[in-house]
Fold Uroporphyrinogen-III synthase.
Amino acid sequence: MATLSLTDRTILVTRSVGQSSEFTQSLIHAGAKVIEMPTLEIVAPSSWESLDNAIMNLAKFNWLILTSSNAVNFFFDRLNAHGQDVSELGEVKIAVVGEKTAQTLKQKDLQPDFTPPNFVADSIVEKFPEEFSGKKILFPRVESGGRDFLVREFTAKGAEVVEAAAYQSVCPSNIPPEAKLALKKFNVDVITFASSKTVRFFCQLLAKTFNVKWSGDSKTEEENLRRVVKKYLQGVCVASIGPQTSKSCFSLIGRVDLEAKEYTLDGLIKALVEWNCFLNK
């Protein structure tokens, strides 16, 4: 980072409330000025019923699939809320997607039985270490808005998948004043997106802040949003953590200028440093 720095770059970070500090510190260490604009708030699901039922029947499952740090934390917090601990998992094997998810699991003194390569959910299907047929899989996940790829693929290959709402992600009510001012004054060099929802909620916040009617349904509303996004992100590098996030960027913002080669936050930082080095040649 010392020779390939982000000095003099202002980066707008759109992550969830309380989850941007490590990423932010890494960017600052690389020399960037960081403005945090949380576009997600992670809260409890509207109902614990599905997860509670699964926890009461853990012994019936063969695998526990965890695809985010949020899933890890909320699942084990709920397990503890029932007066149980990791020993209740018994013979249940754990698969995780992503380096950060694995690290969060290790903080619970657990090692995953399987971590797919490439840090993306799609590879868990291709590289899964057992036959899916006859397996019962517990999948604690975001309540709404997540991808259904894993559920469809597991089910198609003969597994029984039990989805359980472990948390939900909601859009914050407002843009922080510092972020709003930076956008209005065109003082942002890069905006980073680490999930499809951060893209969608960023657009939702932008629409609300700059008085654009947008529900995400009407073509006219979408065009109005595009104009506002184009105006306030003019000259700003749109940086994505990976392919799924990039799809959302293309759909709602109209472009992606940079995509991480390794689909992690560290990979995103490396891509930003390489991008800045190239521009400064």
Q: What stands out?
A: The CA atoms of residues 198 and 237 lie 16 Å apart.
